[in-house]
Amino acid sequence: MPVNYAPLPKRTPRWLVGLTWAIAVGLPVSLLVVLLVLLPITKPAMIDGFILHQLGHDPAVWPWRDLLAAAALVLIGAVVFGWGAVFGGVSTWLERKIAGRMQSRIGPNRAGAGGYLVWMADALKMLLKEDLVPAEADDLLFRAAPYFGLVGFLLTFVTLPFGEGIIVADLGVGAFFVTAITALVVVGILVAGWSSNSKWALFGGFRSAAQVISYEIPAGISLMVPVLMAGTLSMQGIIRAQGGAPWNWFVFRNPAAFVAFFIFFTSQLAEANRTPFDLPEAESELVAGYHSEYSGFRFGLFFLVEYGSLWVMSALAITLFFGGWQIPGFHADQWVAVRGTSPFPPPAWWGMQAASMAVFAAKTYTLVLVVLWIRWTLPRIRIDQMMNLCWKYLVPGAFACFLFTLLWQLLVSAVPRVELASGIALSLVALVLVALFLKQTRDNIYSVAGDRIDLSNW
Amino acid sequence: MAQSASEYVGNVKDTVKSFWHGMSITLSYMLRRPITVQYPDRTDLPVRDTLPPRYRGFLEVDVSICTGCQACERACPISCIQMELEKDPRNPKQRLVTQFDIDEAKCMFCGLCVEPCPTGSIQHTREFEGSQRSIRNLVFRWADPLAPFPVYKVAKDA
Q1: Per-domain residue ranges for chain A?
Q2: Which chain A residues contact residue B41 at CB under 8 A?
Q3: What's the CATH number where B113 sits?
Q4: Which of A273, A320, A368, B8 is the most exposed place for a label (fewest CB within 10 A)?
């Protein structure tokens, strides 16, 4: 019998496994390391110090100072964009892998070990595909729409922290800036829906507008709870007002914040168009919603924004409620002590910065996994149910949390102990809930004869 | 639509409960072994060896017992079997099969050719992997025109 193909190897070749691990670990870690090094160095104070001490000029009279600062900003922009793209790409792989296992499938398993390289193959495919504009579409708006989304997504990184000193700009209005700028993504979606000249896309755009405008309200009000507790809108200020240990996190320090976190998280899910709120792109009803007509690079941008938003929403929730980059047992005065007074920080400071980045990334990734997990658990809700949930449950709930926090802060200023008591009690409750949940999960598995926990077969 | 307070609270309770149960169910499946198989390279046995014995895969011909009766060719409803016979120039009593082509691309695996075969020479195998670079590669040629095989004769006293 004619056989054209050599039999496939039984295992993934060693070199491919090595390459996969090198990319899977090396790419994100190297980007984070570049961010770690660049972000403190590109601060104007540090550049001025560099000009003064290394180049021997007075920064005030040196003509190239502004150019140097601008070049540093452009470099930072490129690296942050790279981080967003890599995170978005890896998330698509992770999502498919998790979806597979939750449905008793394997998921991607061909390109690289565990199918890891599939996200690169996808990105490459999207770059190479034809950039198609449908006939009768509004050409200019159609081409411009993905960039609105991209700008809305990338600008959030201005105030999103990565670590103690690893932030592009610690704006005094940080939390407000993030909520304001993420609304720009909706403009992109609306423009895409309108300009595509397709009924599916138009429906998707309308739904997105209705959804995001409604959910901005509970998100904004529940965001006020940590802001009230911290007394500042600055992202770093909110994190500095919390501590490393769970009982020092805002989410446990105030019973209303515990509820507000869930309201905020649900609203963020809706704003990021994630299931169960993926009505704007409901593939079973609207083909692909607002990006039905897009292909190639522009579609890739929409996808990048959608998956990159996972990081934004998770990092925001971690910042506001879960103590951000705070390392347990490492206090503000220790940060000052380790920084020293020299113009260039000592190695110990860089080490602690890296540790704070690792804490922040680990917490954020945990929340990202929860978002993916929810997607493969819940079905899409109907549009009237979505509106119902927002206006009848989340908005009143958020207002109640807001009012409770006002009173709670009065109580805390009179009896400061009550905050610690609530922190310890609620973290214990959370611990018990997690234990009960894991027990329930274990019971689900072992209640089926012959089934057991088995993480093989990747 | 009017809604009582107990309904309102009940809805919230329902939501929390369904999250709790739903997410523990999906997590439990996440932790189990996937039941799908990584065909074709990560299976313990080649998949054809796991198929039932009467599976109708590609046809095979045992040329050592083919009588050259062409019953299979006549039985085939879509003429995917093509046979050609001629006399052996060295031995006029012996007939030779110069062509025995089975087009597996056309074959619908009905098994009608297997039934009339007097010696059981033509049989289904469990081979099913028919992906080829050209569809013509799926014409299996059981006889070589340059070296035709003699037909099998049943011994008179058998």
Answers
A1: 23-128, 129-443
A2: 7-10
A3: 3.30.70.3270
A4: B8
